[in-house]
Amino acid sequence: MATMLINHMLFLTSLLIVVFPVANAIPARDIDKLCKETTDVPFCLKYLGTDPRIPAARDLTDVLLIAITQSKMQVDDATTHIDRVRRKFNGPHGRRRIEVCKTNYGIASARFHTAWELGLQKSFWDVEKLARIGTNAVIDCENVWRRDGPIQTSPLTFYNMNVFKLSGIILLIFNKLVT
Fold first, then answer.
1. Domains of the chain and any CATH numbers
2. Rounded Cα–Cα distance for residues 128 and 133 (Å)
3. Of 13, 19, 45, 46, which one's alpha carbon is 20 to 30 angstroms from that of 52?
4. Which first-to-last residue range defines the signal peptide?
5. 3 state SS of 28
């Protein structure tokens, strides 16, 4: 009898662990609907809609945390890219611009990390503020390539635009959470 009870409890616990997150997951149609409210639907569907963590997301707070994580991943990838391309920019303007981007991506990384931590605490206004600061640092990295000297093509435009678009998604989710 005791063995049957233990087996039954293990089965129910396993069932709860496996089924509970899925049963309470945010429906995929809600993610599609959210993405349709963004300025770049295919981008949103690519980065949020296909994220393997989305099926386990219970609510918009979890989706917000995933979007912040996606931003942090883009920032980290850009930082790695900076290290790879830095030697291609040996002129004074290129070196200065790469250093501005390296510094700004350091700021963005720290801000998105803290935003994620505050998102866990549901401190949404602080999340919004930090996501803006991180995004503005990335935007400045894009803009520095057009300031103070000859215009150059930024080697980080891909990452800069991804962070900018993810920021729009973060702000959209933020607005839904606070209104």
1. 26-178 (1.20.140.40)
2. 9
3. 13
4. 1-25
5. helix
The string over 19-41, giving b where at least 16 C-beta atoms fall within 10 Å of a residue's C-beta and e elsewhere, is eeeeeebbeeeebeebbeebeee
pLDDT mean over 62-86: 95
Query: What is d(CA 26, CA 55) in angstroms, rounded to the nearest whole number?
Result: 7
What percent of the chain is predicted at pLDDT more than 90? 77
Residue 78 tokens read as 């850009």
Q: Which two tokens stand for residue 21?
A: 């997150």
Residue 21: per-residue pLDDT? 52
Q: Which two tokens stand for residue 109?
A: 């990384």
Cβ neighbours for 35, distance < 8 A, ≥ 6 positions apart: 41, 44, 45, 48, 49
Cα–Cα distance measured from residue 140 to residue 61, given in angstroms and rounded to the nearest whole number: 28
